[in-house]
Design goal:
The structure is a single chain. The chain has three domains: 1-28, no CATH class; 34-110, Carboxypeptidase-like, regulatory domain (Immunoglobulin-like); 129-449, TIM Barrel. It contains ten helices and 25 strands. It has helices at residues 2-9, 16-22, 169-181, 195-204, 223-240, 255-258, 263-280, 324-332, 358-374, 441-449; strands at 34-40, 51-54, 63-64, 70-73, 82-86, 93-96, 104-106, 109-110, 129-132, 135-138, 147-148, 151-155, 186-188, 207-212, 246-251, 287-292, 314-318, 339-343, 349-350, 355-356, 379-384, 404-406, 414-416, 423-426, 436-439. The longest helix has 18 residues, at 223-240.
Amino acid sequence: MCGRIASRLGLLIIPAFFLTACGTEPNEYKQPAVISGRITDQKGIGLYNAGVFILTAPQLDPAWTDQSGFYRFDNVPAGEHRLRAIRAGYKTEEKDVPSAVNGVSTVNFRLQKETYNVPAVKPISKGRVRINGKKLEIDYSGNGTYETFKVKGVAYSATPINGWDYFTDQFAQRSFQYLKLLNVNTIRTYSGIDKKSLRLAEQNEIMIIVGFYVDTNYDFSDSSIREKLKDDFGRLVIELKDSPSVLLWNIGNEQNYTNGSNPYWYTLTQEMAVEAYKIEGEKYHPVCVNNGSIHNIGNAAFAADDASLTYIDLWASNMYQWDLTSEINVYRTKSSKPIVLTEWGIDALDNRIKEEYEDVQAQFDSTNWTQIISNSDVCAGGAVFEFTDEWWKAGDNLSHDYGGYATGSHPDGYSNEEWWGLIAVTPDANNDGMDDWRPRKVFYTLQQLWQ
Protein backbone atom coordinates (compact mmCIF):
# COMPACT_ATOMS: atom_id res chain seq x y z
CA MET A 1 0.00 0.00 0.00
CA CYS A 2 2.73 2.49 0.96
CA GLY A 3 4.63 1.87 -2.27
CA ARG A 4 1.50 2.42 -4.40
CA ILE A 5 0.66 5.67 -2.62
CA ALA A 6 4.17 7.04 -3.13
CA SER A 7 4.23 6.20 -6.83
CA ARG A 8 0.82 7.78 -7.47
CA LEU A 9 1.63 10.98 -5.60
CA GLY A 10 4.78 11.55 -7.63
CA LEU A 11 6.30 14.95 -6.75
CA LEU A 12 3.44 16.01 -4.51
CA ILE A 13 4.20 16.77 -0.87
CA ILE A 14 3.58 13.61 1.17
CA PRO A 15 1.94 14.01 4.57
CA ALA A 16 4.21 13.09 7.48
CA PHE A 17 1.82 10.44 8.78
CA PHE A 18 2.27 8.45 5.54
CA LEU A 19 6.09 8.47 5.98
CA THR A 20 5.85 7.46 9.61
CA ALA A 21 3.48 4.66 8.79
CA CYS A 22 5.86 3.42 6.10
CA GLY A 23 8.90 3.51 8.49
CA THR A 24 10.87 5.96 6.34
CA GLU A 25 11.03 9.00 8.63
CA PRO A 26 13.69 11.20 6.90
CA ASN A 27 15.20 12.49 10.19
CA GLU A 28 15.70 9.09 11.78
CA TYR A 29 19.29 8.84 13.11
CA LYS A 30 21.07 5.63 12.24
CA GLN A 31 23.50 4.60 14.96
CA PRO A 32 27.05 3.85 13.72
CA ALA A 33 28.98 0.79 14.80
CA VAL A 34 32.07 2.32 13.20
CA ILE A 35 33.28 5.90 12.95
CA SER A 36 36.12 6.50 10.52
CA GLY A 37 37.60 9.21 8.41
CA ARG A 38 40.68 11.13 7.41
CA ILE A 39 42.45 14.18 8.79
CA THR A 40 44.36 16.37 6.36
CA ASP A 41 45.94 19.78 6.23
CA GLN A 42 44.56 22.58 4.05
CA LYS A 43 46.37 21.13 1.01
CA GLY A 44 44.68 17.77 1.48
CA ILE A 45 47.83 16.03 2.76
CA GLY A 46 47.15 13.42 5.42
CA LEU A 47 48.31 14.29 8.94
CA TYR A 48 50.07 11.60 10.95
CA ASN A 49 49.62 11.30 14.73
CA ALA A 50 46.49 13.43 14.90
CA GLY A 51 44.27 12.46 17.81
CA VAL A 52 40.52 11.98 17.48
CA PHE A 53 38.50 11.98 20.69
CA ILE A 54 34.86 11.00 21.09
CA LEU A 55 33.79 13.78 23.44
CA THR A 56 30.49 12.05 24.21
CA ALA A 57 32.28 8.81 25.19
CA PRO A 58 35.29 9.97 27.24
CA GLN A 59 35.87 6.46 28.57
CA LEU A 60 37.18 5.42 25.14
CA ASP A 61 40.81 5.76 24.09
CA PRO A 62 41.42 8.28 21.30
CA ALA A 63 42.09 7.07 17.79
CA TRP A 64 45.35 8.17 16.17
CA THR A 65 45.84 8.72 12.47
CA ASP A 66 48.21 6.60 10.40
CA GLN A 67 50.83 7.93 7.99
CA SER A 68 48.09 8.78 5.46
CA GLY A 69 45.86 10.52 7.99
CA PHE A 70 43.21 7.81 8.39
CA TYR A 71 41.62 6.86 11.72
CA ARG A 72 38.91 4.44 12.85
CA PHE A 73 36.76 3.62 15.90
CA ASP A 74 35.12 0.19 16.12
CA ASN A 75 32.30 -0.92 18.43
CA VAL A 76 31.08 2.63 19.00
CA PRO A 77 28.70 2.85 21.98
CA ALA A 78 25.08 3.84 21.38
CA GLY A 79 24.25 7.51 21.21
CA GLU A 80 24.74 10.57 19.05
CA HIS A 81 28.39 11.58 19.24
CA ARG A 82 30.70 14.53 18.76
CA LEU A 83 34.38 14.28 17.78
CA ARG A 84 37.36 16.49 18.46
CA ALA A 85 40.45 16.37 16.22
CA ILE A 86 43.75 17.59 17.68
CA ARG A 87 47.17 17.75 16.06
CA ALA A 88 50.20 19.63 17.37
CA GLY A 89 50.74 22.67 15.15
CA TYR A 90 47.13 22.84 13.97
CA LYS A 91 43.88 24.37 15.19
CA THR A 92 41.56 22.01 17.04
CA GLU A 93 38.24 21.21 15.36
CA GLU A 94 35.02 19.53 16.50
CA LYS A 95 32.24 17.90 14.48
CA ASP A 96 29.04 16.00 15.15
CA VAL A 97 28.92 12.42 13.90
CA PRO A 98 26.36 12.05 11.07
CA SER A 99 23.87 9.25 10.65
CA ALA A 100 25.49 5.97 9.59
CA VAL A 101 25.40 4.42 6.16
CA ASN A 102 25.59 0.64 6.36
CA GLY A 103 26.72 0.98 9.98
CA VAL A 104 29.56 3.43 9.25
CA SER A 105 29.67 7.19 9.92
CA THR A 106 32.38 9.07 8.06
CA VAL A 107 33.85 12.22 9.60
CA ASN A 108 36.70 13.99 7.83
CA PHE A 109 38.65 16.97 9.13
CA ARG A 110 40.75 19.53 7.27
CA LEU A 111 42.84 21.27 9.92
CA GLN A 112 44.31 24.73 9.61
CA LYS A 113 47.81 25.62 10.71
CA GLU A 114 47.97 27.28 14.10
CA THR A 115 49.88 30.51 14.64
CA TYR A 116 51.45 30.52 18.06
CA ASN A 117 52.63 33.28 20.32
CA VAL A 118 55.48 31.73 22.28
CA PRO A 119 56.75 34.29 24.80
CA ALA A 120 60.50 34.71 25.13
CA VAL A 121 60.04 34.36 28.88
CA LYS A 122 57.81 31.46 29.86
CA PRO A 123 54.98 32.78 32.03
CA ILE A 124 53.88 31.10 35.26
CA SER A 125 51.25 28.48 34.46
CA LYS A 126 47.60 29.20 35.19
CA GLY A 127 46.86 25.49 35.21
CA ARG A 128 46.34 23.05 38.07
CA VAL A 129 50.09 22.52 38.55
CA ARG A 130 52.77 25.17 38.38
CA ILE A 131 56.32 26.07 39.32
CA ASN A 132 56.37 29.28 41.32
CA GLY A 133 59.94 30.33 41.99
CA LYS A 134 61.48 27.13 43.34
CA LYS A 135 58.21 25.66 44.59
CA LEU A 136 56.03 23.02 42.97
CA GLU A 137 52.42 24.00 43.62
CA ILE A 138 48.92 22.59 42.99
CA ASP A 139 45.56 24.33 42.83
CA TYR A 140 43.41 21.55 44.31
CA SER A 141 40.08 23.39 44.23
CA GLY A 142 40.48 25.14 40.88
CA ASN A 143 39.86 28.57 42.41
CA GLY A 144 43.36 29.96 41.89
CA THR A 145 44.61 29.15 45.39
CA TYR A 146 47.84 27.14 45.19
CA GLU A 147 49.48 24.96 47.83
CA THR A 148 53.05 23.69 47.92
CA PHE A 149 53.26 20.07 46.79
CA LYS A 150 56.03 17.76 47.99
CA VAL A 151 56.53 14.61 45.93
CA LYS A 152 56.29 11.52 48.15
CA GLY A 153 56.62 9.01 45.39
CA VAL A 154 57.86 5.77 43.94
CA ALA A 155 59.30 4.79 40.60
CA TYR A 156 56.36 2.83 39.23
CA SER A 157 57.09 -0.05 36.89
CA ALA A 158 55.16 -2.86 38.53
CA THR A 159 55.86 -5.62 36.01
CA PRO A 160 54.63 -9.17 36.80
CA ILE A 161 57.24 -11.93 36.84
CA ASN A 162 56.05 -13.31 33.51
CA GLY A 163 56.05 -9.91 31.85
CA TRP A 164 53.78 -7.00 31.03
CA ASP A 165 51.18 -9.19 29.29
CA TYR A 166 50.19 -10.42 32.77
CA PHE A 167 49.41 -6.92 34.05
CA THR A 168 45.70 -7.53 34.62
CA ASP A 169 42.98 -5.33 36.13
CA GLN A 170 43.37 -7.33 39.33
CA PHE A 171 47.12 -6.69 39.35
CA ALA A 172 46.59 -2.95 38.81
CA GLN A 173 43.99 -2.78 41.60
CA ARG A 174 46.40 -4.43 44.04
CA SER A 175 49.18 -2.04 43.02
CA PHE A 176 47.13 1.00 43.97
CA GLN A 177 45.93 -0.57 47.19
CA TYR A 178 49.58 -0.86 48.23
CA LEU A 179 50.39 2.65 46.96
CA LYS A 180 47.64 4.08 49.15
CA LEU A 181 48.82 1.98 52.09
CA LEU A 182 52.31 3.40 51.56
CA ASN A 183 50.91 6.98 51.70
CA VAL A 184 52.27 7.72 48.24
CA ASN A 185 51.04 10.90 46.55
CA THR A 186 52.97 10.48 43.27
CA ILE A 187 54.20 7.80 40.91
CA ARG A 188 56.99 8.28 38.39
CA THR A 189 56.62 6.39 35.08
CA TYR A 190 59.09 5.78 32.28
CA SER A 191 56.94 5.61 29.14
CA GLY A 192 53.55 7.27 29.43
CA ILE A 193 51.09 5.33 31.57
CA ASP A 194 48.74 2.45 30.87
CA LYS A 195 45.01 3.14 30.98
CA LYS A 196 44.39 0.89 33.99
CA SER A 197 46.91 2.77 36.11
CA LEU A 198 45.80 6.18 34.85
CA ARG A 199 42.21 5.47 35.82
CA LEU A 200 43.25 4.22 39.26
CA ALA A 201 45.57 7.18 39.83
CA GLU A 202 42.69 9.55 39.12
CA GLN A 203 40.35 7.64 41.43
CA ASN A 204 42.92 7.60 44.25
CA GLU A 205 44.11 11.20 43.74
CA ILE A 206 47.67 10.09 43.05
CA MET A 207 49.74 12.38 40.82
CA ILE A 208 51.95 11.19 37.96
CA ILE A 209 55.37 12.31 36.80
CA VAL A 210 54.74 11.18 33.22
CA GLY A 211 57.85 9.82 31.57
CA PHE A 212 58.53 10.18 27.84
CA TYR A 213 60.83 7.40 26.70
CA VAL A 214 63.67 8.34 24.34
CA ASP A 215 65.80 5.67 22.65
CA THR A 216 69.46 6.28 23.51
CA ASN A 217 70.51 5.05 20.04
CA TYR A 218 68.95 8.04 18.28
CA ASP A 219 71.12 10.59 16.52
CA PHE A 220 69.80 13.77 18.10
CA SER A 221 71.46 15.90 15.41
CA ASP A 222 69.24 14.31 12.73
CA SER A 223 66.41 16.76 11.94
CA SER A 224 63.97 13.97 11.00
CA ILE A 225 64.54 12.22 14.34
CA ARG A 226 64.11 15.49 16.21
CA GLU A 227 60.80 16.12 14.43
CA LYS A 228 59.64 12.57 15.18
CA LEU A 229 60.43 12.92 18.88
CA LYS A 230 58.68 16.28 19.11
CA ASP A 231 55.70 14.81 17.29
CA ASP A 232 55.53 11.75 19.57
CA PHE A 233 55.92 13.90 22.67
CA GLY A 234 53.12 16.14 21.42
CA ARG A 235 50.90 13.08 21.06
CA LEU A 236 51.58 12.12 24.69
CA VAL A 237 50.74 15.64 25.87
CA ILE A 238 47.54 15.73 23.81
CA GLU A 239 46.41 12.37 25.14
CA LEU A 240 47.03 13.01 28.86
CA LYS A 241 46.95 16.77 29.41
CA ASP A 242 43.36 16.81 30.66
CA SER A 243 43.91 14.17 33.32
CA PRO A 244 43.78 15.67 36.84
CA SER A 245 46.59 13.29 37.85
CA VAL A 246 49.28 14.69 35.54
CA LEU A 247 51.94 16.43 37.63
CA LEU A 248 54.95 16.84 35.34
CA TRP A 249 56.17 15.86 31.89
CA ASN A 250 59.58 14.18 32.30
CA ILE A 251 61.67 13.90 29.13
CA GLY A 252 64.06 10.94 28.76
CA ASN A 253 65.96 9.00 31.38
CA GLU A 254 69.67 9.54 32.02
CA GLN A 255 70.50 10.36 28.40
CA ASN A 256 73.54 12.24 29.69
CA TYR A 257 75.12 8.90 30.69
CA THR A 258 74.75 7.29 27.29
CA ASN A 259 73.90 9.47 24.30
CA GLY A 260 73.14 12.88 25.69
CA SER A 261 76.38 14.59 26.65
CA ASN A 262 76.04 17.04 23.79
CA PRO A 263 74.07 20.17 22.94
CA TYR A 264 71.83 18.29 20.50
CA TRP A 265 70.10 16.51 23.36
CA TYR A 266 69.47 19.55 25.51
CA THR A 267 68.37 21.81 22.63
CA LEU A 268 65.94 19.05 21.65
CA THR A 269 64.42 19.02 25.14
CA GLN A 270 63.98 22.79 24.95
CA GLU A 271 62.17 22.41 21.62
CA MET A 272 59.98 19.65 23.05
CA ALA A 273 59.03 21.84 26.00
CA VAL A 274 58.05 24.59 23.57
CA GLU A 275 55.86 22.09 21.70
CA ALA A 276 54.13 21.16 24.95
CA TYR A 277 53.47 24.84 25.64
CA LYS A 278 51.96 25.29 22.20
CA ILE A 279 49.55 22.43 22.89
CA GLU A 280 48.62 23.34 26.47
CA GLY A 281 48.91 27.10 26.37
CA GLU A 282 48.73 29.18 29.54
CA LYS A 283 47.50 26.20 31.60
CA TYR A 284 50.56 24.08 30.82
CA HIS A 285 52.04 21.39 33.03
CA PRO A 286 55.69 21.88 34.05
CA VAL A 287 58.33 20.10 31.97
CA CYS A 288 61.54 18.57 33.33
CA VAL A 289 64.54 16.81 31.78
CA ASN A 290 65.62 13.58 33.41
CA ASN A 291 69.34 13.63 34.17
CA GLY A 292 71.71 11.14 35.73
CA SER A 293 72.83 12.96 38.89
CA ILE A 294 73.84 16.56 38.04
CA HIS A 295 76.36 15.85 35.27
CA ASN A 296 76.11 18.52 32.52
CA ILE A 297 73.58 20.66 34.40
CA GLY A 298 74.59 24.30 33.99
CA ASN A 299 77.00 23.55 31.13
CA ALA A 300 76.47 26.30 28.55
CA ALA A 301 78.61 24.45 25.99
CA PHE A 302 76.01 21.66 26.05
CA ALA A 303 73.10 24.14 26.11
CA ALA A 304 72.24 22.68 29.52
CA ASP A 305 72.21 25.99 31.37
CA ASP A 306 69.24 28.07 32.52
CA ALA A 307 69.72 30.63 29.74
CA SER A 308 69.40 27.91 27.10
CA LEU A 309 66.58 25.90 28.71
CA THR A 310 64.06 28.68 29.15
CA TYR A 311 61.04 26.38 28.69
CA ILE A 312 62.31 23.63 31.00
CA ASP A 313 60.72 24.38 34.36
CA LEU A 314 62.78 22.15 36.66
CA TRP A 315 65.35 19.37 36.59
CA ALA A 316 64.63 15.72 37.31
CA SER A 317 67.59 13.79 38.66
CA ASN A 318 68.31 10.14 39.43
CA MET A 319 70.65 10.60 42.37
CA TYR A 320 72.25 7.65 44.14
CA GLN A 321 74.45 8.24 47.17
CA TRP A 322 74.37 8.19 50.95
CA ASP A 323 74.85 11.94 51.24
CA LEU A 324 72.34 13.65 48.94
CA THR A 325 72.78 17.03 50.59
CA SER A 326 76.33 17.48 49.30
CA GLU A 327 75.16 16.79 45.72
CA ILE A 328 72.14 19.08 46.06
CA ASN A 329 74.43 21.83 47.35
CA VAL A 330 76.55 21.51 44.21
CA TYR A 331 73.35 21.64 42.15
CA ARG A 332 72.50 24.99 43.74
CA THR A 333 75.56 26.45 42.04
CA LYS A 334 74.50 25.07 38.62
CA SER A 335 70.88 26.16 38.24
CA SER A 336 68.26 28.43 39.74
CA LYS A 337 65.49 25.97 38.88
CA PRO A 338 64.00 23.57 41.44
CA ILE A 339 64.88 19.88 41.25
CA VAL A 340 62.88 16.70 41.83
CA LEU A 341 64.67 13.42 42.53
CA THR A 342 63.11 10.81 40.26
CA GLU A 343 65.24 7.92 41.59
CA TRP A 344 67.11 7.43 44.86
CA GLY A 345 67.78 4.68 47.43
CA ILE A 346 69.43 1.24 47.33
CA ASP A 347 68.46 -2.36 46.60
CA ALA A 348 67.58 -4.91 49.28
CA LEU A 349 70.24 -7.56 48.57
CA ASP A 350 73.67 -7.80 50.15
CA ASN A 351 75.60 -9.05 47.15
CA ARG A 352 78.50 -10.21 49.30
CA ILE A 353 76.48 -12.98 50.90
CA LYS A 354 73.45 -13.11 48.55
CA GLU A 355 71.01 -12.42 51.38
CA GLU A 356 68.64 -9.52 51.94
CA TYR A 357 69.64 -6.77 54.35
CA GLU A 358 66.31 -5.05 54.90
CA ASP A 359 67.54 -3.03 57.88
CA VAL A 360 70.30 -1.45 55.78
CA GLN A 361 67.92 -0.64 52.92
CA ALA A 362 65.43 0.95 55.31
CA GLN A 363 68.12 3.02 57.02
CA PHE A 364 69.62 4.18 53.72
CA ASP A 365 66.30 5.15 52.14
CA SER A 366 64.94 6.88 55.22
CA THR A 367 68.17 8.87 55.56
CA ASN A 368 67.86 9.93 51.92
CA TRP A 369 64.29 11.07 52.49
CA THR A 370 65.30 13.12 55.53
CA GLN A 371 67.93 14.82 53.36
CA ILE A 372 65.39 15.53 50.61
CA ILE A 373 63.05 17.19 53.10
CA SER A 374 65.88 19.18 54.66
CA ASN A 375 66.56 20.70 51.23
CA SER A 376 62.93 21.66 50.51
CA ASP A 377 63.92 25.18 49.54
CA VAL A 378 65.15 23.78 46.20
CA CYS A 379 64.07 20.11 46.15
CA ALA A 380 60.43 19.35 45.30
CA GLY A 381 60.58 15.86 46.79
CA GLY A 382 61.39 12.54 45.22
CA ALA A 383 60.34 9.14 43.94
CA VAL A 384 62.23 6.27 45.54
CA PHE A 385 63.51 3.49 43.31
CA GLU A 386 61.47 1.36 43.28
CA PHE A 387 57.95 0.12 44.05
CA THR A 388 58.41 -3.64 43.42
CA ASP A 389 61.16 -6.07 42.45
CA GLU A 390 61.54 -6.53 38.70
CA TRP A 391 62.53 -10.04 37.65
CA TRP A 392 63.07 -9.16 33.99
CA LYS A 393 66.06 -6.86 34.37
CA ALA A 394 69.17 -9.02 34.70
CA GLY A 395 68.56 -12.43 33.17
CA ASP A 396 65.79 -14.99 32.90
CA ASN A 397 62.35 -13.46 33.51
CA LEU A 398 61.36 -16.46 35.58
CA SER A 399 64.29 -16.36 38.00
CA HIS A 400 65.33 -13.82 40.62
CA ASP A 401 68.84 -13.15 39.31
CA TYR A 402 71.81 -11.50 41.00
CA GLY A 403 72.93 -9.47 37.98
CA GLY A 404 73.70 -5.77 38.15
CA TYR A 405 76.74 -3.53 38.37
CA ALA A 406 79.45 -2.45 40.79
CA THR A 407 78.96 0.88 42.54
CA GLY A 408 80.64 2.72 45.36
CA SER A 409 77.29 4.24 46.37
CA HIS A 410 76.01 1.03 48.00
CA PRO A 411 77.20 -0.48 51.30
CA ASP A 412 77.93 -3.82 49.57
CA GLY A 413 79.56 -2.16 46.56
CA TYR A 414 76.99 -3.59 44.12
CA SER A 415 73.57 -2.82 42.67
CA ASN A 416 71.43 -5.92 42.19
CA GLU A 417 68.97 -4.85 39.50
CA GLU A 418 66.19 -7.29 40.37
CA TRP A 419 66.09 -6.60 44.15
CA TRP A 420 65.25 -2.91 44.39
CA GLY A 421 61.62 -3.17 45.44
CA LEU A 422 60.03 -1.74 48.54
CA ILE A 423 57.96 -4.87 47.96
CA ALA A 424 59.59 -8.28 47.52
CA VAL A 425 58.08 -10.33 44.70
CA THR A 426 57.92 -14.14 44.62
CA PRO A 427 56.00 -16.59 42.40
CA ASP A 428 52.29 -17.19 42.90
CA ALA A 429 51.92 -19.70 45.76
CA ASN A 430 48.22 -19.31 46.55
CA ASN A 431 46.93 -19.70 42.97
CA ASP A 432 45.19 -16.34 42.85
CA GLY A 433 46.73 -15.60 39.43
CA MET A 434 49.19 -12.98 40.72
CA ASP A 435 52.76 -12.98 42.03
CA ASP A 436 53.02 -12.91 45.82
CA TRP A 437 53.99 -9.60 47.40
CA ARG A 438 55.72 -9.00 50.73
CA PRO A 439 56.41 -5.42 51.87
CA ARG A 440 59.98 -5.04 53.11
CA LYS A 441 60.94 -3.07 56.19
CA VAL A 442 61.62 0.03 54.09
CA PHE A 443 57.97 0.02 53.02
CA TYR A 444 56.78 0.49 56.58
CA THR A 445 59.55 2.98 57.35
CA LEU A 446 58.55 5.26 54.47
CA GLN A 447 54.89 4.71 55.26
CA GLN A 448 55.48 6.34 58.64
CA LEU A 449 57.57 9.16 57.19
CA TRP A 450 54.95 9.93 54.54
CA GLN A 451 51.94 10.15 56.86
